[in-house]
Each structure stands twice: as C-alpha cells, then as structure tokens.
Amino acid sequence: MQCKAMPEIRNQTWCRAQILLLLIAWLYICWLHWDNDGLWYGDAPRHAANGLFWKDYLLSLSLNPRNYALSYHARYPVIAPTTYPPAFYLLEAVVFGVFGPSPYIAKGLVLGFALIAGLYTTAWCHRWISWPVKDARWPSPVRVSR
Questions:
Q1: Closest Cα partner for 85 from 116, 126, 104, 113?
Q2: Is residue 29 classed exposed, middle or buried when 0-12, 13-18 and 19+ CB atoms within 10 A define those classes?
Q3: Of 95, 101, 93, 53, which Cα lies nearest the Cα of 77?
Q4: Does 146 reside within a domain?
Q5: Would you say residue 95 lies in a domain?
Q6: What is d(CA 113, CA 111) in angstroms, rounded to the nearest whole number?
Q7: How far is 81 from 58, CA to CA, in rounded Å?
Q8: Is 141 a member of any domain?
Q9: What is the pLDDT along the chain (146 residues), one digit of tens a residue?
Q10: CA 124 to CA 2: how far, in whole Å?
Q11: Could you tell me the residue range of the domain that residue 80 belongs to?
Q12: Is 54 in contact with 69 (CB distance < 8 Å)?
C-alpha cells in the first residue's frame, strides 16, 4: 500500500508546483500590463468595439440583426461582429453592461481567459501526458477500497 501511495503524493506535489508556476507567470503578465489600458494596441480597440456592438444589439431588441449590424457598421466601421465567434464578445457585452465600457475591464476579461486557458492546458497535460513520472494525471476523486 505504501508503494502505491508514493506516486500519488508525488503527482499531487507536481500538480501543485505546476499550478503555482502558472499563477506566478499569470501574475507577472498582469503586473507587466498594470499601468496600460490594453494588452495589444492593434486589435484591442476592434475587440472592445465588437463587445460594445453586441451590448448595443442585445439592448436594442432588434428583430433584424443584419440591418442593425449594417447601420452600426456605417457609424462605426471598426466593428467586425462575424470575424470571430461571438461567445467572448457576448460575455464582454454583459460585463460592459454591468460595469460600463472600459479598456481596463476588457483587459481584465482577456487576462481571466488567459488564466482559464492555462489551467485547462495544465489539466489536459496531466490527463494525457505521462511526464515526468509514469502515469501522471489528476488524482481520481473516487477511491476504490479492496
């Protein structure tokens, strides 16, 4: 029993260390971008405008999305509402509706998604890649006693 318990303890320690390193890297990136109003100056205004478009569209209760998008694009030609999948923009629209439009809020949402992507990638690697110890993966929540 003790021989089987050691690899599990080693795996848990390795998982915690990787998550801690991921959080340190994420906090470092947050610190680097603390005093600016956007992560990337090229696409950031377009992504924020897309979030504002979706917020305005949802609040308008328009039944004709094509005409609304064309009229909105005539006023604000920076938007590209169909270039990317709208899931992020819909969440951004909700956050803009609650807190008001701000580049800092958009930046925080992007950084939050980066942290989620890092945690998901770590979990995926633990599930499917067996390095550095054999059969490394997240500990199973179900214990089978014999």
A1: 113
A2: middle
A3: 53
A4: no
A5: yes
A6: 5
A7: 13
A8: no
A9: 444 454 555 556 677 888 899 999 999 988 988 887 665 666 777 888 888 999 999 999 989 989 999 999 999 888 888 777 788 888 888 998 899 888 888 888 888 889 999 999 888 877 777 555 555 555 555 555 55
A10: 28
A11: 2-128
A12: no
Give a yes or no: residue 117 inside a domain.
yes
For the whole model, what pTM was predicted? 0.67
How many helices, marked H, and strands, marked E, lie in the chain? 5, 0
Cα 84 from chain centroid? 15
The pLDDT value recorded for residue 1 is 43
DSSP secondary structure string, 59-95? HHT-S-HHHHHHHHHHH-TT--TTTS-THHHHHHHHH
- For residue 1, how many other CB atoms are within 10 A of its CB? 5
DSSP string, 127-143: HH---SSTT--PPPS--
How many domains in the chain? 1
Let me know: does 15 contact 133? Beta carbons within 8 Å.
Answer: no
Structure tokens of 50?
């897309």
Would you say how long the chain is, in residues?
146
